[in-house]
Amino acid sequence: MTATTSPTYRLDDWQGGHRTQPQEFSYEIEDITGQIPPGLTGTLFRNGPGRLDRGGQRYHHPFDGDGMISQVSFQRGRAFYRNRYVQTQELQAEQRADKILYRGVFGTLKPGGWLNNMFDLRLKNIANTNVIYWGDKLLALWEAAQPYQLDPNNLDTLGLDDLQGTVPSGYGFSAHPRLDPQGLLVNFGVKAGPNSQINLYEFNQNWQLVRQHQHPVNGFAFLHDFILTENYYIFFQNPVNFNPLPYVLGWTGAAQCLQFDPEQPTRILVIPRNGGAVRVFLTDSCFVFHHANGYEQGDELILDSICYRHFPTIDQKTDYQTIDFATLPSGQLKRFRVNLTTHQVTTTLLLERCCEFPQVHPQRVGREYQRVYLGVAADPVANAPLQGIMALDVQTGQQKMWQAGTQGFVSEPVFVSHGEGEDQGWLITFVYNSARQCSDIVILNAADMTAVATLHLKHHIPYGLHGSFTPVLFDS
């Protein structure tokens, strides 16, 4: 297909980044433009759906794809690349059968029509959303199930990890943990239903549970991410209703049963970290996947989030490869000021340009900050694929942007700090280069948003989701 939805990109160029990568590689990257910073030492881990079809059947949505971990080790100006699939129990079963055996949350159905899908409510742990190294453990995360532990030296799958019984079977552990600058990993899980429950966890670096909370929430809670401040956990409860009947009858995936209600407000849930009841604040109807950051300022909470006008879903009849981006809402960065005394919530648009995957300096998480880094569209207004990385000053509005070109499509930028300043660091992003039909790893100087090195891989990596960096070096 050669349709052009925007002068900034061609749809068929973008489509190439949604091909399955069937191979697993291990090699030193030798084709490099520029120079890897000699001070960049450590390991980048990145997760995302690597397999997007099985037995000749394409998955209905890339979010249903099997998790594949990429690892890039940096040392003395050199880099080593490795990728491995997370060998979940379900992936291994489908490999043996060479066909889809499990329904996907976002609409993938087993072959055989609705009769073969009806009443099959099993969840496939796809382990495809994030990967973190913390407390000597490397964990692949998917929010609806337990994490999978991996060997950080070779990415071998070690098995499910219930974190010393903290996350029992059937419970979720979010793909969006927050690292408190005080040295704690904070995360949550949700048991969603007509009334929901949020489970909150805080771990030290020995994986000892420092705090644990359970809070009931009225209504269905679709919570993908949260904000952590010094004293609060903060969630945006999207105004959605869930009618499970089409899912139960085998017609759709579970996520396609979510119905956005624009007449209902979005509920901001504020939960004290030291214990106490959930406080609820109301704001205009919107849908939020990801938050940039938040902090406390006197009686106010300052919350910066990527907002959509409504839930950007793809129905059962639509092929995501031919999607018209103009029909979907674009994510925009907005600031919410929540007054804890008056209950007033005010909203300010910080960035109109379509954006996603926000990152801040790790020492500014939950603290007052100035700079956020985001993947952005090339077009300043229209919804489109992400083709650039922007540094936005949320106080002055100043923007600095690096662009991948009309044939480049970016993923989440991972911030690697080398100082206390918010611009003292590097941004590492995977870019699908449709001209080569391969992927590049681009390293940007966060201060001026220029590319200091582009590492040209020998193959493509499908569009990914989230990743992290550790100064610990896991070499070849």
UniProtKB/TrEMBL annotation:
Alphabetized UniProt keyword annotations: Iron, Metal-binding, Oxidoreductase
Gene Ontology MF, one: all-trans-8'-apo-beta-carotenal 15,15'-oxygenase activity
NADP in keyword set: no
InterPro entries to which the protein is assigned, alphabetical: Carotenoid_Oase (IPR004294), Haem_d1_sf (IPR011048)
EC numbers: 1.13.11.75
Cofactor binding note of this UniProt entry: Binds 1 Fe(2+) ion per subunit.
Keyword Transit peptide included in the entry's annotation: no
GO biological process: carotene catabolic process
Pfam families documented for this protein: RPE65
Residues where Fe cation binds: H176, H224, H290, H466
Cofactor annotation: Fe(2+)
Family: Belongs to the carotenoid oxygenase family.
Name of the protein in question: Retinal pigment epithelial membrane protein
Originating organism: Gloeomargarita lithophora Alchichica-D10
